[in-house]
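Quick one: structure tokens for this chain, please?
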Amino acid sequence: MTARRKVARDFESTYRAYKSIKHETGLLYIHSTSGALSVGEINIDGCLIETKHLPFTIQKRSTLIADRLNVLSETNNKTQMRQTMGDVADFINSLWMKGWVDTSMFFHHNIGYMHDNSLIQIDTGDFLRKDTPLRHKNKKADQYIDKSSQWLEENFSFLRATYEKRMKSNLKNII
């Protein structure tokens, strides 16, 4: 896939997420290069960027799950770490219930923890479409659980069993 096609695909997925699961993504604003929508220019650190031909999004600020777990690990706060992973499992399942399965499988970099303890999906570029066949969604969901469990085993092994159990029990009722 060419870089241009990937950007177009990712932006299309982000646009669908903005329309369908805006709250869960923390997306505040989306700007495509097509249509009449034009902001003009943005000043970032003294550099003016013309936005007329630049697709971009504005999203709420959050802390990556990996960063949150690392901070909690430094204080040996295993209770909060388990709670965080429970929140992550519930959040992923809520997205799956709405037909959104993230195919990149890196929840620790794709889900953010907000200051109010809510979660948002940061990277919206690799979601399956709602009309994706069920067997393909099931396969991706199983791969997601396996890949994320592997990451937990490598980084916070005591969280893996709880996460897998919660994800697999919820998966039976969702997809």
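The helical segments are 3-20, 22-25, 65-74, 78-97, 107-110, 134-155, 157-174.
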